[in-house]
Amino acid sequence: MSNSSGVELPVLEPEAMCCPPLTSAELSEADAVKMAAMFKALGDPVRLRLFSKVASHPEGEACVCDIQDVGVSQPTVSHHLKKLKDVGLLTSERRGTWVYYRIEPSVLAAMSRTLDRGSA
Amino acid sequence: MSNSSGVELPVLEPEAMCCPPLTSAELSEADAVKMAAMFKALGDPVRLRLFSKVASHPEGEACVCDIQDVGVSQPTVSHHLKKLKDVGLLTSERRGTWVYYRIEPSVLAAMSRTLDRGSA
Q1: In 3D, which of B76, B2, B9 has the Cα closest to residue B44?
Q2: Which of A69, A70, B54, B72 has the fewest CB atoms within 10 Å distance of its CB?
Q3: Angstrom distance (rounded) from CA B68 to CA A65
Q4: What is the DSSP string of B33-59?
Q5: Is B22's CB within 8 Å of A51's CB?
Q6: Residue B79 to residue A98: CA distance in whole angstroms
Q7: Minimal CA–CA distance to B99: which of B73, B71, B63, B69?
Q8: Is B60 left (phi over 0), alpha (psi -120 to 50) or beta?
Q9: Residues in chain A closer than 8 A to B55 (CB atoms)
Q10: Which InterPro entries does the UniProt entry name for this protein (chains A, B) (predicted)?
Q11: Is the Cβ pair A49, B27 closer than 8 Å?
């Protein structure tokens, strides 16, 4: 049931996700590690475009067959999508021939909230 | 007056900043390059902690002398702060002996908006 590393990353549980807005409290070292991994995943132009292609598809889901036109090879696309999955920004599901990618709204919301200035 | 197809990087002008929410429209290649640079800047745990230290200080400004306790050398702190400045997330000002860093709220807001799911 658990993965081989034994390290659980509860990134898919909205309530368990860090973090408060950066403007309201200093990030702990542990939270900084977790959040930095997510920002880093979006810190590559091709990966960010792939993510935006999935996110802007109806209902935040796209077939991998529909999002490959980003100017890199198919293995590179797969590599980037795996990185986005690893940090919890995307989930995937195979249906027949194709793999479908879906954004994880709670993770996106947590990142947005962290950058939000609140009422300012 | 408008810059709908401009090639400049007006990162400090709130209204000119990209981008629409990722869930509403696919990022252009140019916007992806610009946004990825900002996400990448926050994609390092030490840099993110430094940024959160500035952001959570009163009025979003901190003396460099108050934010150096992140477990790395002073030159490394300076290096990280420069990266955050380069992408427009921080500005700095020397006053007497010390340099003061300040968050750029419009850039933070633009990043938050890009990750926002809107009403969903």
Answers
A1: B76
A2: A69
A3: 47
A4: HHHHHHHHHT-SHHHHHHHHHHHHSGG
A5: yes
A6: 44
A7: B63
A8: left
A9: 22-23
A10: ArsR-like_HTH, HTH_ArsR_DNA-bd_dom, HTH_MetalResp_TranReg, WH-like_DNA-bd_sf, WH_DNA-bd_sf
A11: yes
B112, amino acid identity: S
CA nearest to B35, candidates A119, B25, A18: B25
Phi, psi of B69 (to 5 degrees): -85, 60
So what's the ipTM on this one? 0.82
Q: Using the beta-carbon criterion (under 8 Å), do B43 and A41 form an inter-chain contact?
A: yes
Residue B38: alpha-carbon gap to chain centroid: 6
User: Among residues A41, A44, A56, A46, which one has the least CA distance to residue A89?
Assistant: A41
Q: Least CA distance to A38: which residue of chain B? A: B43
Confidence of residue B11 (pLDDT cuts 50, 70, 90): very low
CB B49 within 8 A of CB A30: no
Instruction: Summarize pLDDT for B47-104 with one digit per residue, the tens.
Output: 999 999 999 998 889 999 999 899 999 999 999 999 999 999 999 999 999 999 999 9
For residue B18, give the 3-state DSSP assignment: coil
- pTM for the whole thing? 0.83
Q: What confidence tier does A58 reach under pLDDT thresholds 50, 70, 90?
A: confident
